[in-house]
Specification:
Helix content is about 35%, strand content about 25%. It is of the alpha/beta class and about 240 residues long.
């Protein structure tokens, strides 16, 4: 569930990039928070930011995964779609296996209509062109037409998972943009969001100076005392 405190953090995270977040986390000793092998189905969409709601797949076994299992109202994949809270990102552990789809356009559309923030899998989506056309952030490894039952059995909802070699705990903050998806541990998300806003402000100053012809040395990182004073004045004006 997204609380008022979480909403404030999410609003800040929408204004920063995954690259800036990665640098901030690196400074804190966290080097493995960027989900590997995952990309947006369509670039150029608004930054995705929300709290993690998770779904875990294990390898399918034929006697347990006939097509009829979807008739079960308690099927974990369907339940996850119907219970993913507003403002959350559904993160799916597909074991980095995109040979069968993690979900398709109907389930993703349902998530969008329920107010979810986005969806991420380290596997693949079917109906990928339809999902890409939605006003809804979606990230995967590669398109995949076969039904998930071919290789995946949905087994657990909202427990710790691995997605693209990153540990994701329910309630962690998830941010996605054109570069990919990064995971922020929930207990430091507020601090990270605020620090990243300040980093982004400084990067705007740096880009302005670089476009004016300034060299990088002393500017990025900021070690030149004159530039430090100039930056403080720039901040006051902006």
């Amino acid at each position: 569930m997204v609380t008022d405190k979480s909403s404030a953090i999410i609003n800040k995270l929408r204004k920063v990039s995954t690259a800036t977040i990665a640098t901030c986390l690196f400074k804190k000793g966290l080097k493995n928070q960027f989900i590997q092998g995952v990309q947006p189905l369509k670039k150029g969409k608004s930054t995705m930011a929300g709290t993690a709601y998770t779904l875990r797949y294990i390898p399918a076994r034929e006697d347990l995964n006939p097509i009829e299992v979807f008739k079960n109202p308690e099927h974990p994949q369907r339940v996850a779609v119907e219970e993913c809270p507003k403002g959350s990102v559904l993160v799916i552990d597909s074991r980095k296996d995109a040979r069968a789809a993690s979900a398709g356009s109907i389930l993703v559309t349902r998530l969008m209509q329920r107010g979810a923030e986005g969806i991420v899998t380290d596997g693949g989506f079917r109906d990928s062109a339809e999902i890409a056309a939605l006003d809804f952030p979606a990230f995967h490894k590669t398109p995949s037409a076969p039904t998930n039952l071919t290789l995946h059995q949905a087994i657990a909802i909202n427990e710790p998972i691995g997605c693209g070699d990153v540990a994701v705990f329910p309630g962690d903050f998830i941010v996605g943009d054109d570069d990919g998806v990064i995971v922020i541990p929930y207990n430091i998300a507020g601090t990270v969001a605020e620090e990243c806003l300040q980093m982004t402000l400084y990067e705007e100053f740096v880009m302005e100076k670089v476009n004016q012809g300034s060299p990088i040395i002393g500017l990025y990182p900021l070690t030149d005392e004159n530039l430090k004073m100039e930056y403080e004045q720039w901040k006051n004006r902006n």
